[in-house]
Amino acid sequence: MSYKSNQLNKILVIVGPSGVGKGTLINKLLNEFPNHFTFKISHTTRGLRTGEVNGKNYHFLTKPDFEKVKIFKILNLNPIYIITN
User: Fold this and answer.
1) How confident is the model at residue 44, as a pLDDT?
2) CA distance 33 to 30
3) CA 69 from centre of chain
4) Where are the strands (E) in the chain, listed by range?
């Protein structure tokens, strides 16, 4: 995928309560628009649910390990900076 230097990349954040269909929507977007979307795997301290895979659905960490995570990426979104782990 190539972008013009003046083209601004945008972030789409999908949030909602458990079971509302966030995963279904994300999978549909990824399948139908593979060159426009990517998925950021979040970190969580909750336990795995049936069918979930560590490193695919979430990065599952203990609370002490979660507190130790110090790796951050700074996304320059011109003029906004977002810090994400």
Assistant:
1) 82
2) 5
3) 16
4) 43-44, 59-60, 73-76, 81-84
Tell me how crowded residue 36 is: count the other CB atoms within 10 A of its CB.
11
Convert the pLDDT of each residue in 21-53 to its tens digit.
Answer: 988 999 999 999 998 888 888 878 888 999 999
Token pair 């230097």: residue: 5
DSSP 58: B
Tokens of 85: 């782990």
Q: In the structure encoding, which two tokens stand for residue 64, read together?
A: 């002490």
pTM value is 0.55
For residue 24, CA distances in Å to 20, 21, 45, 55, 70 come to 9, 5, 22, 18, 31
R_g (Cα) of the chain, nearest Å: 15
